[in-house]
């Protein structure tokens, strides 16, 4: 359920309030914030998803919409402009086109997958997966505020891979594929063969891409799942 909230974009932060005369519910650093249009997921045509990494390293999502499409577009552009200004101050010698790619990004892919736990006896459970650059998150529902788990996707030469099928001893749910990381293997299953093939394709593209310095720092503090 959506509730009215007041948002304030000032300096290098975005704050939102439950009540105007109270302290902000959250103060989000622009450096940690991503914003993306999500028209289908909320059921509202003019919707945004705000995602950021909190101080404890966990990921937080909030979902917002406005009846006026121009209001939503203006907020989206204002956040991007504020992020660009911050980067221009931090990197005065960088060209603008170099910085634009660091502002915000749409999710590479989202959708339902079945996922099982680390033991062959664990049951498959339906989860909503979001591929956000090198971070693969899964949730019980598309509009959950927090992912149940996050998987960092490094480079294929560092022990990361994805292929059709399941690990030895695990049940094949149908349309299955196996994501392997240095820490664990994830047995996943799509709803259709084309969807499985597309998930494998987009994950492979990420695994084949060299890591940036920022992504290397992310890999050192990557969040591992705590629940199935």
UniProtKB/TrEMBL annotation:
Sorted alphabetically, which Pfam families does this protein's record hold?
PH
Q: Where is the PH domain?
A: 1-84, 106-208
A GO molecular function held by the record:
phosphatidylinositol-3,4,5-trisphosphate binding
Q: Which SMART domains does this UniProt record tie to the protein? A: PH
Q: Could you name the Gene Ontology cellular component terms for this entry?
A: cytoplasm; plasma membrane
Q: Which InterPro entries match?
A: Arf-GAP_dual-PH_domain, PH-like_dom_sf, PH1_ADAP, PH2_ADAP, PH_domain
Return the PROSITE patterns for the record.
PH_DOMAIN
Q: PANTHER family in the record, alphabetically?
A: ARF-GAP WITH DUAL PH DOMAIN-CONTAINING PROTEIN 1 (PTHR46021:SF2), ARF-GAP WITH DUAL PH DOMAIN-CONTAINING PROTEIN 1-LIKE PROTEIN (PTHR46021)
Q: What is this protein called?
A: PH domain-containing protein
Q: State the organism named in the record.
A: Graphocephala atropunctata
Q: What is the lineage of its organism?
A: Eukaryota, Metazoa, Ecdysozoa, Arthropoda, Hexapoda
